[in-house]
């Protein structure tokens, strides 16, 4: 078995990307994810890859677009304001169906906000921050090991579905050190080549084009329908979530990422005090596991959604749960990380105990 | 911060669940840079805690900021060389270690934190000395390998001081 | 005696008809780029990056792999490609709205990095595609749909001298400003474009040619008058010349 | 020095009748045709092709790449 | 009564803005809204105002930010890709609580898309295209007259709540000419001065600051809570919608903007054939009139949501309707405008008639 | 005989302590800007636009109305303010990541429009705030957290010469590059800043001063050595000088 | 396009509900620029229609593109001077007007569209001639005012031609 | 020419002990103090203030605006 090592979340994502065969990283500094580009600036030359610090996030995403056009695995990382600047380019990539991995280590917002952990970009990531009809696969790790695993998965999903995949983390996941096991290095020759569409020189074949554009709305609609069909396929196959002590639970906490792991402590605490709590933690924020959550919610006393925002995933929870159970929300904003204690207090308040 | 990482590593070698979580950002300039280490036999859930069983205060601002966060019955370690104030809590175990003085005596002020680490290990037995030494060797490589001995020495002195 | 073809449609153009207005010199510039690609024998290793502007359809016209970059971002897209595949040749084709307005940061930094790409910058002093609004390169006093009273420096700023700015970037290996309003100038432009490609092929750095071009439609004059207008109004504001040449004259 | 003898062909369906070729031909070889092409333009025509000196000016200025230029050579 | 004149939607919005006291317009060309900046470039000098064509949409939104800092009425206009580029700036404005009016004449997307009418930016506008916790007021006119009225309202709401207000239209509303009546010119002296916070020179008073930032997460959270409180107030007071022939309706079409007006024809057509249809048209897309739609939906045979996208408002319709009625969706994408006939056909298909 | 104050904290600074690292010359530049504002008597009509960078807190330090612009967009924000309130004086304070990387387009176009604003551009060859990453102005060979092996032209591009680029914009009324590593240079910088403000006050156009500044923390040396390092390494790459001066010498 | 605006204006003066909706974008270069005018006594709902009661084809591409869109029993107006093809529909009223020839005879080719407008008004009576003239005066102002007369003349000729 | 007589004051609580003032003072008036201030720095002190010539160098180089410079004048 591979060695366990103690690493920071951001660096773990970087190393995982390299193991997944990524040899290209474009990025612009922004706290709290600087350790990732810094790691890449050191590591890429060691593995024959390229790290390029760009002039801005707008340039970054368009470099990622360009690299992805050639069918090469490529990634970037940023934090909230930078992710906003990427929205035009992301929309272009979604339409042109380009694979890439985009990391957003979310910080307190909106605006300049602060640099503390937050989940305020859930809407932006899942409901389309850019213009037009599209969805990105959005993965939310809650441990450093999961960050590693989801990074590898992100590259594979990106290639499989020809789509940008977002890894959404926050300062906790990004800054925290935990022991992890890295996967083996992927043999670069085994990576998908995308020979059927990638721009690699029209050498002995018809020219390829990669565009997010057609002047004729009927043709554009067809492109759109193709994308929608792909999205339906992803919805059918790629929903991921964790269920924790739900078997006998009367109360379900819904939470993702960092809060998902904090909520586990709350579940323990609650059970110690005789409250049968469990956790439903979506791992794919899009596609959101609506059906499973609906099923689970039936007959429950309370669904307590906890997030580090004003209640963003809450809308998806509501869409899933409908009228099947009472839904309450507890949130902290602006970069404040809730402690298990305060969540438990909130839970008790909602239960009147 | 290094102290925390060594502790985490040592915990990992013992097969425990560990997390190391730093504070980051402008606080680093404020002088209260700190980190939270959780070492546990169970799966580690929350890496952020409002309370901790063991807290180490290497300077006055840290003491002021974190004293209240020690769980009742927990430990508060104080770097006596720098902190000339008395803690106010009475429901906790207070361990004072003259880290800087001991480190100075070893000829390297920078190992003050290792002195403290030794004290923590001695008192709490959270991990074994062997694991700590293994972690130290893992962490100090290349040009820094020469520092392993003085660090080990510091840890041992810290343990003694805390006995 | 027999007739032999001496000049004909280059291989590096597809058969598609250009979507440009009658007499628009975008078409000339396309053709000479295609000729250069033919002459250098790099068609099968070239990627074209079309901009957003009237030449958005360039991705259909060049018989090479091609994409359309977001407005102004062609140099970033080309950078991404070149870093991913340093063995390929990448060029961008950009208008003055695209390159000199929204894309200012991307072109300056691609040039400054010495990015091994080639940029053809078509300066027609106007936003053609969107219906004749002011470009950064619009001349003072010129009426456009967003300067209905003529461009005024005080409100709208001055014509932007792109080549002069880019020349200050240390990564530039070739940089010239040319025009295409006479057959002789077309040939000179072609030579400059070739050098801009050679700068890339030889790995010397960034190559760019700023080409003064016409927009009869939005200038509101006929195509032949447009050639003259270019000479009389644009050339005085935008002096022709070679600003940087590290390629040399061997070719 | 004997004058070079040239010839041009114009793809009239591609032609947009812009007149640039006409304006630069030193020998006045080209003029607009009478009819319309499918696009609705009066295409250019090499009306006095015998005067052509294969200078390539027309080719160089044609924005729609409609023109092919030939030059007389000793037959092989 | 004021004179009726026949004007294009984009120009109508421009003139309405001027009448509402706006004397500052920043914009970058993009089809299909160019007539609005073009109109402003002509009209602003006539009324002593300023029109500035910017170097990009990124610059635009930051100029709007700057102007708004001084408490001056200011507006911009763009279309989808341009709106994506504004997301960072919009998030800053939302956090700094700056009033301004932003017009998005949506075109087919994603990516470069095309320039035909679309409603593909609903999510972006209502769920936060930018990072962090915020909401903008989003108004969707369905006639040129309504575009005029909502433009004036937009300025007033922006000032009242210190928030950017979005007017979301499309190529149909933007390009269409209809007769309208313009309101009187607002007396500039009566406009809100924002003396309590605007940056106008610290002349004989304490300095003012306008920021979207605090390094301390607890302070930032307080700023966030203030905004959330404001948003709740807006939700309580500013929901607007149109109900059309709903009194006896068994079938409710939900649609906004252009599709909202097309749907009226469908309602007529349906009623001619004996199908009791009605229309529920949200005018404020945010705040969305959930409660009213929920009320209406009870006992209905069918809610047919029709949009020019893949089903974006649909999520809000579902959140409102829950399990009260069957919901179906009919959409066109990529810039295709559905005709009344095809919508009616879709309706009949869903009803099995 | 008695002692009279001849130099003291200017009115245009608030009482807040700077958040800068010990010996960081950001503080010196703040003080001289405040002195200029005092001397020109415009404090009550001035708006400061702070950037994102170590000087993000400048909005708290200047005793004027103030805001923080999005990273790199200070010139756009200032433009919006100035157009809204031409009677006020607006200045931006920007770092080299802010102005020379992400904000390239905004500064070039503000300069080119001759926007009547003043920009103080602090070039410390590094991203201070975010922990010492490469800036466009980082010197070749210099180690930063994102150029762990030293900046290499081939991968990372060249040091960007901002003043030289900006001088090509026709709307510039005053432009100089100065440094603040000696008391004499601090005075020269102050004079330049004053002129950059006068360019605005007199309505002549855009005024900017590029100031070479230190970052002891991220350069990894002590504050006094940093002054020397600036002299020995930065000055050769970034020659000092007045590039444009339409203000004249009356003041 | 101008024809459509005048018609809309005229409708407006008569207190009817009108909308004018152009096609836009690159089609403008394609030669089939067109607009849709809805004049109605009821509130106008959809400004876009797949069918129309009256369609005007000023050139061949427009004929080809729009012929199928006339509602049965509706009108198709054809500019006979330019369109030398026969429409294929038989369930609609076809009105051929030699607009260019008539306009040419009036000495101004540009008023061909006004000739057609006259024909449309005559046949469909959608608005009154007075309203059309009012609209014309409203639309042609400033330097263009001198053109009002020849436009009016053209409209009248168109009406005659369609009688 | 009689030497100008000056005096400086340093706000030691603001001082961050960077030493720039010390490095530029031509008269070596300033040196670090022994103690720490609340921020934990050894603040600069005008130890030999009698040597001060009011040149203002220290003021000019102090990044934290801690220094006030005085000059001796004929009393009014
Ligand atoms: C982000 C964004 N903003 C604006 C546009 C609209 N747009 C399309 S082309 C163009 C300008 C084209 O002008 P130029 O680059 O000069 O090219 P030309 O048509 O003159 O050749 C603009 C502003 C867009 N597509 N995307
Ligand atoms: C859009 C965006 N990208 C990145 C950042 C992160 N960031 C904050 S400051 C900074 C660089 C600051 O460097 P510089 O401008 O040189 O100022 P200095 O700190 O050196 O004075 C960056 C990249 C941000 N806040 N916003
Ligand atoms: S609009 Fe101008 S630039 Fe565009 S194709 Fe026509 S003539 Fe050429
Ligand atoms: S080749 Fe020269 S001479 Fe012949 S037609 Fe063309 S321009 Fe005229
Ligand atoms: S230049 Fe080309 S397109 Fe123009 S008229 Fe001549 S042949 Fe036709
Ligand atoms: S990091 Fe550098 S620039 Fe920032 S305050 Fe510290 S020394 Fe100054
Ligand atoms: S004023 Fe001059 S002499 Fe006096 S302490 Fe300062 S630097 Fe030294
Ligand atoms: S320069 Fe200022 S901050 Fe630095 S040591 Fe001297 S007084 Fe203190
Ligand atoms: Mg142009
Ligand atoms: Mg810097």
Describe this structure in words.
- The complex is a heterooctamer, with two copies of chain A (353 residues), two copies of chain B (163 residues), two copies of chain C (251 residues) and two copies of chain D (76 residues).
- Chain A has 353 residues and is of the alpha/beta class.
- Chain A has two domains: 4-237, Thiamin diphosphate (ThDP)-binding fold, Pyr/PP domains (Rossmann fold); 242-351, Rossmann fold (3-Layer(aba) Sandwich), CATH 3.40.50.920.
- Chain A has helices spanning 9-19, 35-46, 57-69, 80-85, 87-96, 122-126, 144-161, 171-175, 217-237, 257-272, 290-297, 313-321, 340-351, and strands spanning 4-8, 24-27, 50-53, 75-78, 100-106, 137-139, 164-170, 177-181, 209-210, 241-244, 251-254, 277-282, 284-286, 302-307, 327-331.
- The radius of gyration of chain A is 20 Å and the shape is globular.
- Chain A starts with a strand and ends with a helix.
- Chain B is α/β, with parallel strands linked by helices and 163 residues long.
- Chain B has one domain (2-162): Pyruvate-ferredoxin oxidoreductase, PFOR, domain III (Pyruvate-ferredoxin Oxidoreductase, domain 3), CATH 3.40.920.
- Chain B has seven helices and five strands; from the N terminus they run αβαββαββαααα.
- Chain B has helices at 2-13, 27-30, 60-66, 99-105, 112-124, 129-139, 148-162; strands spanning 17-22, 35-40, 52-57, 70-79, 93-97.
- In chain B, the strands form two sheets. A three-stranded parallel sheet of chain B has the order 3-4-5, sandwiched between helices. In chain B, strands 1-2 form a two-stranded antiparallel sheet.
- In chain B, α1 crosses α6 and α5 crosses α7 (148-162).
- The mean pLDDT of chain B is 86.
- Chain C has helices at residues 26-40, 58-61, 74-84, 96-102, 104-113, 153-156, 162-166, 183-201, 216-219, 223-237, and strands at residues 2-7, 46-50, 65-68, 89-95, 118-123, 172-179, 206-212, 241-245.
- Helix content of chain C is 37%, strand content 19%.
- Chain C is of the alpha/beta class.
- In chain C, α1 crosses α8.
- The two termini of chain D are 22 Å apart.
- Chain D is elongated.
- Chain D has a two-stranded antiparallel sheet with strand order 1-4. A two-stranded antiparallel ribbon of chain D has the order 2-3.
- Chain D is α+β, with helices and mostly antiparallel strands.
- Chain D is 13% helix and 21% strand.
- Chain D has helices spanning 20-24, 57-61, and strands at residues 6-10, 31-32, 44-45, 67-73.
- The mean pLDDT of chain D is 93.
- Chain D has a single domain (6-71), classed as Alpha-Beta Plaits (2-Layer Sandwich).
- Chains in contact: A-B, A-C, A-E, A-F, C-D, C-E, C-F, E-F, E-G, F-H.
- At the A-E interface, α4, α5, α9 and α12 of A face α4, α5, α9 and α12 of E.
- β9 (209-210) of chain A pairs parallel with β3 (65-68) of chain C.
- The complex binds thiamine diphosphate (TPP) (2 copies), iron/sulfur cluster (6 copies) and magnesium ion (2 copies).
- One thiamine diphosphate sits between chains C (52-55, 71, 95-98, 122, 124, 126-130, 135) and E (28-30, 57, 81-82, 85).
- Chains C, F: One of its GO terms (molecular function) is thiamine pyrophosphate binding.
- Chains C, F: One of its GO terms (biological process) is cellular respiration.
- Chains C, F: It comes from Fervidobacterium thailandense.
- Chains C, F: This is 2-oxoglutarate oxidoreductase.
- Chains C, F: InterPro entries: 2-oxoacid:Fd_oxidoreductase, THDP-binding, TPP_enzyme_TPP-bd.
């Amino acid at each position: 078995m591979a060695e366990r090592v103690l690493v920071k979340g951001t660096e773990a994502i970087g190393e995982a990307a390299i193991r997944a065969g990524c040899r290209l990283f474009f990025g612009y500094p922004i706290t709290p994810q600087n350790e990732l580009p810094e790691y890449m600036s050191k590591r890429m030359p060691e593995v024959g890859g390229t790290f390029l610090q760009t002039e801005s996030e707008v340039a970054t995403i368009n470099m990622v677009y360009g690299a992805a056009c050639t069918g090469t695995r490529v990634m970037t990382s940023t934090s909230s304001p930078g992710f906003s600047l990427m929205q035009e380019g992301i929309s272009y990539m979604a339409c042109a169906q380009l694979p890439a991995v985009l990391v957003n280590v979310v910080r307190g917002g909106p605006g300049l906000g602060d640099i503390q952990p937050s989940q305020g970009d859930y809407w932006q990531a899942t409901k389309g921050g850019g213009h037009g009809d599209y969805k990105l696969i959005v993965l939310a790790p809650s441990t450093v090991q999961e960050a590693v695993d989801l990074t590898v998965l992100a590259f594979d999903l990106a290639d499989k579905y020809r789509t940008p995949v977002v890894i959404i983390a926050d300062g906790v996941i990004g800054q925290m050190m935990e022991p992890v096991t890295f996967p083996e290095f992927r043999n670069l020759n085994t990576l998908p080549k995308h020979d059927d569409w990638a721009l690699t020189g029209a050498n002995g074949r018809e020219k390829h084009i990669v565009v997010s554009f057609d002047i004729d709305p009927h043709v554009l609609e067809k492109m759109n329908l193709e994308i929608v069909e792909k999205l339906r396929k992803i919805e059918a196959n790629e929903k991921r979530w964790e269920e924790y002590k739900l078997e006998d639970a009367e109360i379900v906490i819904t939470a993702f990422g960092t809060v998902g792991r904090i909520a586990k402590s709350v579940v323990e605490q609650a059970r110690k005090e005789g409250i049968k709590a469990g956790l439903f933690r979506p791992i794919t924020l899009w596609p959101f596991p609506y059906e499973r959550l609906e099923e689970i919610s039936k007959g429950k006393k309370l669904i307590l959604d906890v997030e580090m925002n004003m209640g963003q995933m809450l809308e998806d929870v509501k869409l899933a749960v409908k009228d099947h159970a009472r839904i309450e929300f507890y949130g902290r904003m602006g970069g404040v990380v809730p402690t298990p204690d305060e969540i438990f207090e909130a839970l008790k308040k909602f239960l009147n105990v | 911060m290094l102290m925390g990482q060594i502790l985490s590593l040592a915990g990992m070698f013992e097969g425990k669940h560990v997390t190391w979580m730093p504070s980051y950002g402008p606080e680093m300039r404020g002088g209260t840079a700190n980190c939270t280490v959780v070492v546990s036999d169970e799966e580690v859930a929350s890496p952020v805690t409002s309370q901790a069983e063991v807290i180490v205060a290497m300077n006055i601002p840290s003491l002021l900021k974190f004293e209240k966060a020690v769980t009742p019955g927990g430990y508060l370690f104080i770097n006596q060389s720098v902190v000339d104030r008395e803690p106010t809590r009475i429901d906790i175990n207070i361990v004072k270690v003259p880290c800087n003085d001991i480190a100075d005596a070893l000829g390297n002020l920078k190992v003050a934190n290792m002195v403290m680490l030794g004290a923590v290990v001695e008192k709490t037995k959270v991990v074994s000395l062997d694991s700590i030494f293994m972690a130290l060797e893992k962490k100090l490589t290349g040009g820094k390998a020469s520092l392993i001995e003085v660090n080990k020495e510091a840890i041992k002195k810290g343990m003694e001081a805390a006995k | 005696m027999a007739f032999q073809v001496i000049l004909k449609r280059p291989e590096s153009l597809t058969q598609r008809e250009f979507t440009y207005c009658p007499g628009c010199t975008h078409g000339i510039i396309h053709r000479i780029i295609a000729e250069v690609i033919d002459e250098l024998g790099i068609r099968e290793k070239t990627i074209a990056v079309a901009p957003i502007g009237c030449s958005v359809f360039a991705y259909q016209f060049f018989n090479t792999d091609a994409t359309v970059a977001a407005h102004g971002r062609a140099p970033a897209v080309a950078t991404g490609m070149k870093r991913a595949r340093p063995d390929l040749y990448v060029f961008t084709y950009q208008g003055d709205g695209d390159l000199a307005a929204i894309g200012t940061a991307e072109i300056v930094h691609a040039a400054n990095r010495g990015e091994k790409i080639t940029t053809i910058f078509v300066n027609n002093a106007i936003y053609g595609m969107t219906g004749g609004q002011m470009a950064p390169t619009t001349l003072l006093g010129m009426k456009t749909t967003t300067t209905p009273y003529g461009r005024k420096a005080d409100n709208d700023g001055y014509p932007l001298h792109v080549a002069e700015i880019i020349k200050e970037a240390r990564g530039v290996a070739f940089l010239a400003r040319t025009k295409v309003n006479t057959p002789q100038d077309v040939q000179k432009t072609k030579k400059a474009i070739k050098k801009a490609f050679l700068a890339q092929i030889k790995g010397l750095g960034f190559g760019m040619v700023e080409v003064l071009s016409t927009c009869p439609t939005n200038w509101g004059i006929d195509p032949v008058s447009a050639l003259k207008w270019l000479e009389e109004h644009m050339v005085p504001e935008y002096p022709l010349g070679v600003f940087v040449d590290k390629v040399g004259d061997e070719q | 020095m004997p004058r070079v003898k040239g010839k041009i062909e114009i793809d009239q369906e591609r032609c947009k009748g812009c007149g640039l070729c006409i304006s630069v031909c030193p020998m006045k070889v080209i003029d607009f045709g009478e009819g319309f092409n499918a696009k609705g333009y009066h295409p250019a025509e090499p009306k006095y092709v015998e005067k052509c000196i294969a200078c390539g000016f027309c080719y160089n200025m044609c924005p729609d790449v409609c023109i092919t230029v030939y030059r007389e050579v000793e037959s092989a």
